[in-house]
Design a protein that fits this description.
VC0802-like; prephenate dehydrogenase (NADP+) activity; NAD+ binding; 17% strand; prephenate dehydrogenase (NAD+) activity; amino-acid biosynthesis; alpha/beta; Rossmann fold; 7-stranded mixed beta sheet
């Protein structure tokens, strides 16, 4: 691949363009909003000059509702040898293209499973896709050359290719992305009119659950409008679980011991099923989740604290597998949770204490 055209310079399009440009591909950028394209150019993602002729690969980075139209325009204009979209829904756009009677041998659907709560070119990074799955949904008509171009794009972005059927992909992302986003928004919505005294008690748990609720509603309306059926089916199942959980909690309020036992059993069941599901979430590097132990350190909100603690862990010969920070509300301190292998936890704890860090059990 020597040349590429990115149509749509939001988070995904600009991030892909940055990755390609960094690897020597000449990237042409265009967007319905010329200012957004100019911003991507200023970031080093490519040029907004029109290509002199057909490029090797056109990447359509438009919302799902606009993908088919943008692809049709590009294909009819002969803008590239191959065409690929990065929309988060795959079945609908493909069927729209089929209905338009286009030759789809030069097209392959794709979806990089990566993103951020922020949108637009200023949120883009060239390493956004590194280590992340990138789904490809080829059909029997997809030309081998186009598949190879798509694989080259994924390689340049350092992502991991995954081949799926388009409709199976849509059901999968409804489960692991679209439905969780709505549930996160519903939980966050409970905070909108909550008393300030209650909100000040927010800890890491509520931050984890509501983090993705900060995403752009306009973008998510486009996504959910393109995949409503599978998401509605999953939410119906969640609703049934909620009803059963509410009944179990009401039973715990009863003075009848038998009802209280039923309530306890119901709560245990939902928590047990939650444990069983959470265990299946892939861990570091996409492997089976590894049980880590936490070393919790009290840190001041001052420059250099994070660098010091990582350096001290390095001196102790301990690899930090993951990290999270919980900030204390209204104070310039926080708790830094360092996840390490169980055998490394006592080593790290002793080393950090020796270097003056306050360890919290």
């Amino acid at each position: 691949m020597r040349t590429a055209l990115v149509i749509g310079t939001g988070l995904i399009g600009t991030s892909a363009a940055l990755a390609l440009a960094a690897r020597g591909v000449v990237v042409h950028l265009t967007d319905r909003d010329p200012e957004q394209a100019r911003t991507a150019v200023a970031l080093g993602a490519g040029t907004d000059a029109e290509p002199a002729g057909p490029v090797d690969l056109a990447i359509i980075a438009a919302p799902p509702a606009h993908v088919a139209a943008a692809l049709a325009d590009a294909m009819r204009g002969g803008l590239a040898r191959g065409y690929l979209d990065v929309a988060s829904v795959k079945g609908g756009p493909r069927r729209e293209l089929e209905a338009l009677g286009l030759d789809l041998s030069a097209y392959i659907g794709s979806h990089p499973m990566s993103g951020r709560e922020k949108s637009g070119p200023l949120a883009a990074t060239g390493d956004l896709f590194e280590g992340r799955p990138w789904v490809l949904t080829p059909t029997r008509d997809t030309d081998t050359e186009v598949l190879n171009l798509a694989l080259e794009l994924i390689s340049h972005c350092r992502a991991v290719p995954v081949v799926m059927d388009a409709d199976a992909h849509d059901r999968a992302v409804a489960l692991v992305s679209h439905m969780p986003h709505l549930v996160s928004s519903m939980v966050a919505a409970r905070l909108e009119n909550a008393e300030e005294a209650a909100v000040r008690l927010c800890g890491q748990g509520i931050r984890d659950v509501t983090r993705i609720a900060a995403s752009d509603p306009r973008m998510w309306i486009d996504i959910l409008s393109a995949n409503p059926g599978p998401v509605a089916d999953l939410l119906a199942d969640v609703s049934a679980d909620l009803d059963e959980t509410v009944q179990a909690l009401r039973a715990l309020q009863s003075s009848d011991q038998a009802k209280r036992r039923e309530g306890t059993t119901g709560i245990k069941d939902v928590l047990r099923r939650g444990n069983a599901g959470q265990i299946r979430v892939p861990g570091k590097h996409g492997t089976a989740p590894t049980p880590y132990e936490s070393v919790v350190v009290l840190i001041d909100d001052q420059p250099g604290q994070l660098a010091r603690i990582f350096a001290d862990a390095d001196r102790a010969g301990v690899n930090i597998e993951d990290v999270r920070i919980e900030h204390a509300t209204g104070q310039q301190i926080g708790l830094m949770e360092l996840m390490v292998k169980p055998t490394a936890a006592p080593v790290l704890t002793a080393a950090l204490r020796d270097r003056g860090w306050a360890i919290r059990q």
